[in-house]
Amino acid sequence: MPNMIPRGVPGPMKLYIGSLHFNITEDMLRGIFEPFGKIDTVQLMTDPETGRSKGYGFITVSGIGH
């Protein structure tokens, strides 16, 4: 996947991550994407009433492939 993103892209990028299993955690997401570059933030979207994952989230990355 990192070959799809051009090197030298300035600044951090916020990536949408969808179709996630409802049991995945922010720590699990971080572990999956860390091999591809520096992860600045992980935000898993949850239902405010139940606290259950909505199945998508966002990752802010910098230094992809470095």
UniProtKB/TrEMBL annotation:
<dbReference type="InterPro" id="IPR000504">
    <property type="entry name" value="RRM_dom"/>
</dbReference>
<protein>
    <recommendedName>
        <fullName>RRM domain-containing protein</fullName>
    </recommendedName>
</protein>
<dbReference type="GO" id="GO:0003723">
    <property type="term" value="F:RNA binding"/>
</dbReference>
<keyword id="KW-0694">RNA-binding</keyword>
<dbReference type="InterPro" id="IPR006509">
    <property type="entry name" value="RBM39_SF"/>
</dbReference>
<dbReference type="InterPro" id="IPR012677">
    <property type="entry name" value="Nucleotide-bd_a/b_plait_sf"/>
</dbReference>
<dbReference type="Pfam" id="PF00076">
    <property type="entry name" value="RRM_1"/>
</dbReference>
<dbReference type="GO" id="GO:0005634">
    <property type="term" value="C:nucleus"/>
</dbReference>
<dbReference type="InterPro" id="IPR035979">
    <property type="entry name" value="RBD_domain_sf"/>
</dbReference>
<dbReference type="GO" id="GO:0006397">
    <property type="term" value="P:mRNA processing"/>
</dbReference>
<feature type="domain" description="RRM">
    <location>
        <begin position="13"/>
        <end position="66"/>
    </location>
</feature>
